[in-house]
Amino acid sequence: MKTSFSVRVATASDNELLAQLGWETFEAAFGAANTPEDMAAYLPTAFNPSLQAAELNDPQTIFWIISVQEAVVGYIKFYFGPAPACITSSNQMKIARLYLLPKWCGKGLGTELLKQSFDFAKKKECKVIWLTVWEHNTGALALYQKYGFKIVGDEDFVLGQDVQHDFIMEKVF
User: Fold this and answer.
1) Contact, 151 vs 166, CB < 8 A?
2) In this structure, are residues 74 and 21 in contact, taking their beta carbons and an 8 Å threshold?
3) Residues near 70 by beta carbon (within 8 Å), at least 6 away in sequence
4) CATH C-level class of 6-172
5) Residue 52 CA to chain centroid, in angstroms?
6) How many whole angstroms separate alpha carbon 51 and alpha carbon 26?
7) In contact, 166 and 130? CB cutoff 8 Å
8) Distance CA 52, CA 89 (A)
9) In terms of pTM, does the model score above 0.70?
10) For each successive 10 residues of the chain (173 residues), what is the average pLDDT?
């Protein structure tokens, strides 16, 4: 059975909500695979109200807040700024984050949000949608490959003192 959800565009007043959701979802997804020290160094620098306020003010960034009934369960961050050289079109959009609370993972919500992201990219006349994914996040890699994303490059992701390897993936429309 499909989960019924709603999407709204985030506003400037959502900075604290985005910081809290980002922290909680990132920690739940990646905390067990990383040291507590690296997580403690990374989380406050990536997910804090001031940073989220700046991102909300960036005209190249759009956030969608996802709710099931009245409960907020996650968010997506889209970015329309510069892309790495391996991205095949300058008319592109990045899914910078697709974060769901753990209780909502594996219920098909991520797939539905990914499909809505494709529709959004097409409405914005993007030829390419791209993202990065940690090389050890096999579930996300499988999902993205199932929906036509191909690995086109890689980049480092620094989490605390740990330099990790992310794949850059793109889907061409």
Assistant:
1) no
2) yes
3) none
4) alpha beta
5) 14
6) 16
7) no
8) 28
9) yes
10) 83 97 96 97 96 97 94 96 94 96 86 93 96 94 95 97 97 95
At position 63, the amino acid (one-letter code) is F
Express each pLDDT in 58-74 by its tens digit: 999 999 999 998 899 99
Tell me: the pLDDT tens digits for 93-104? 999 999 999 988
What residue type is assigned to position 151 of the chain? I
- SS3 label, residue 5: coil
Residue type, position 14, single letter = D
Q: Where are the domains of the chain?
A: 6-172
3-class SS at 4?
Answer: coil
Quickly tell me which residue has 């086109």 as its tokens. Answer: 152
Burial class of residue 41, CB neighbours in 10 A (0-12, 13-18, 19+): middle
